[in-house]
Predict the structure.
Amino acid sequence: MIKLYNYDLSVNCYKQRLMMGILGIDYESIPVDFFPGQEHKSEAFKEVNPLGHIPVIVDGDYTLRDAHAILVYLAAKYDPSGCWYPSDDPELIGELSQWMLFAEGTTNTASAARLHDNLGYAFDIDALRSGAHQLFRVLDEHLWFREREGKDWVCSADHPTIADLAIFPDVMLSEEGGISRLPYPAIRRWTERVRRIEGFTIMPGIQEAASLAI
Amino acid sequence: MTTTVEECTDPVALSLWHPVVAVAELNPQEIQTTLLLGYQISYGLRNDGSLGAARQDQPRVELPVRSRYGYLWVCLGEPRGDVFDIPEAEEADRRTLNAASIMVNTSAPRAVENFLDMGHFPFVHGGFLGVEPHTEVVDYEVTIENSEVWARQCLFYQPQAAASASGGQISEYTYRVPHPYCVMLTKSSPTDPSRQDVIGLFIQVMTQERIRAHNFLSVLDEDSSDTVLKRFQQIIFSQDKPILENQYPKLLPLDPRVEVPIRADKSAIAYRRWLSELGLTYSVIPGDQNSTGQATTGQRSL
């Protein structure tokens, strides 16, 4: 069984929990005392990941770190439909890689702001918030034009991909870092769609979508 | 942020002991800084194990400090008495720890009221502290005793009441508010039902609308690791966080006509009235003096 070095309040660990929930993968969660224990910085944990951060997965004798790399691996290996990581379509996979790098940006701004506001990390909060707003403006405009084309997701496929899962948690918890989503209506509609993906799982701070009246 | 923060002038808040940090998270000789009631303060652990704290604008004036229940407590004025007692936590065979210190953009009294409220369990903590359709808050008893708010016989169906619980149960809580910004509950321990586990929320009031909530645990649980115990509390608290941050106004209105309570809010009604009687003005919107009821006289049932 896959082991996930996990912290429940981490957005990057949530990305893996989300993917495994959607793909119906059973996994064992190994809780890491990220806060206040700083266990990920301990010598023992550096045996698992010398960079000292989570998540890390262990699948048999294969160990992989970095949230977005793990998403690629899980989708490539465990999604027989090939939808979540469409590696046989060069244009689509190029787009997807572009948005995965975008997600590094949302992690390093919006989610870093959350660490500052929740846990007191000594970051330049004004720079993080304005950086997040710049990215959110780009994403909102992009999603708005997608909707005009009748497309629901970050990439141009007619189904969600790991790019949606990589960006969604950073965006969805942005208010915890003082970054309002009120100015971004297309982002808000997209987060609603993500929350309706079959197999969607929640985390503290992210609720299920309200049930639709029939 | 570089916005100017207003320093507290409320004599009631200034005379209180305020939790500032879990002592176990301090390294000797490392000076840390934080905000308390709008004042920048520095604090630290000396080599001899003693604790110290001072306002940054008055670095030579030592502030009164206490080390109790694993936390450093600081008073910015003249303290009245000691930090409140927690008799259960004094027992030798307990595990006492800080589950987390998490900052939230809300006022301390809003967080205290959320802690007192059982009505939200099935909706916000579904699968843990409550589950639909078990949504009823049955009547419970609220009293003021020794200038503290107590709520007893608080019964609620809980699918997973604690990290160590296996399966649903009707939990009975006793809530206690011994301090305007600190609240705790006791409930019978899953490992020894004749004794009580204690969960507390000791709030550091950074400003009127920003807090650092120190999540205190004192439990009889020899099996769960610290990580598992902390994890459970952190999940619960983080589920509350977005709710708290979306309550407006952030300051708690003490005028009973401003927000309409329901029967399940009995403890919150008593808490607001008690804050009025203490004369607290920091982190609240004080009510009309004529509508806050009579002064505290010993024990009173609601």
The longest strand of chain B covers residues 196-207. Chain B touches chain A through 26 residues (CB under 8 Å). The CA atoms of residues 273 and 292 of chain B lie 6 Å apart.
